[in-house]
Amino acid sequence: xxxxxxxxxxxxxxxxxxxxxxxxxxxxxxxxxxxxxxxxxxxxxxxxxxxxxxxxxxxxxxxxxxxxxxxxxxxxxxxxxxxxxxxxxxxxxxxxxxxxxxxxxxxxxxxxxxxxxxxxxxxxxxxxxxxxxxxxxxxxxxxxxxxxxxxxxxxxxxxxxxxxxxxxxxxxxxxxxxxxxxxxxxxxxxxxxxxxxxxxxxxxx
Length: 205
Description:
By secondary structure, this protein is of the alpha+beta class. Helix content is about 20%, strand content about 30%. Strands 1, 2, 3, 4, 5, 6, 7, 8, 9, 10 and 11 form an eleven-stranded mixed beta sheet that branches. Strand 2 and strand 3 (about 55-60) form a beta hairpin. The chain starts with a strand and ends with a strand.
């Protein structure tokens, strides 16, 4: 499950949306300084649908509050579960997947190495792997939001992520952000065509 991302700043996101509204193209320049990573409970700059039907930038808390005492925030949403609840019209994600689909722009996401690979390929089960979208310094992850909180959508991993972990964030390629915000969003479950680059981050001692 994705528990660490490198988000853009609110200032970067707002400038990109302003540019999009005037030119039809959003662009965030390469970072001049090392960006900070974010973890569940932090605020993530998020693209949401405005009341007028356009796009707006909001800072949302990463993770839905749990109704169960002492349980941590629910910061990932399985697409399969959300779609099932959408059909049944009940469940934790039913309203969010219906009305709260949104976009989280990031520079990278991380997964912890799990035992999905053979022991010879697995240097350390706690090793982190950094993923970026090939050819892009910023990309979008599909998400859902509700009540000032946001959760990242996860799906079946492609080959790149599957060597490391059993799930992956629903990374969007060029032109797919509008699909996620449309009624055709379920077709985005297949991420096999998404080309990701990886960087192994050694465990800190």
